[in-house]
Amino acid sequence: LADPRVQAFHRAAAPALMEAGLLRVSVVRHEGRIVAVLLGFADGRRGYSYINGVDGTVPGQSFGTLAFACAIEDALAGGAR
Q1: Closest CA to 75 of 50, 51, 45
Q2: Could you report the per-residue pLDDT of 38-60, keeping only the tens digit for each?
Q3: C-alpha–C-alpha distance, residues 71 and 69, integer Å
Q4: Most exposed residue of 17, 26, 59, 69, measured as fewest CB within 10 angstroms of its CB?
């Protein structure tokens, strides 16, 4: 994601995906800072994980798992099965 071309693609694609109701972003915060993010998509019937990142500086925590749990709950609430 450090490549400026990849960043430009995500910046261009995200608004259109959001407008279409497909973009899903799960953010986990710990002590006021972001420690996990999951970018995904959902079409009402299915949810998809695209890419995620986790701050591993907090030992003994599973923030990435929590981000996935949030994404799954969101997909279920949206009608995915």
Answers
A1: 45
A2: 999 988 788 889 999 999 888 88
A3: 5
A4: 59
The residue among 76, 81, 80, 52 whose CA lies nearest residue 66 is: 52
Helices (H) and strands (E) in the chain, counts: 2, 3
How far is Cα 81 from Cα 67, in angstroms, rounded to an integer? Answer: 18
CA dist 37 to 34, 40, 49, 55, Å? 8, 10, 11, 9
User: pTM to 2 decimals?
Assistant: 0.80
- By residue count, the chain amounts to 81
Q: Which two tokens stand for residue 30?
A: 């710990």
The answer to whether 44 touches 78, Cβ cutoff 8 Å, is yes
Amino acid type, 76: L
* C-alpha separations of 43 from 17, 21, 22, 77 in Å: 11, 8, 6, 12
DSSP 8-class letter at 58? S
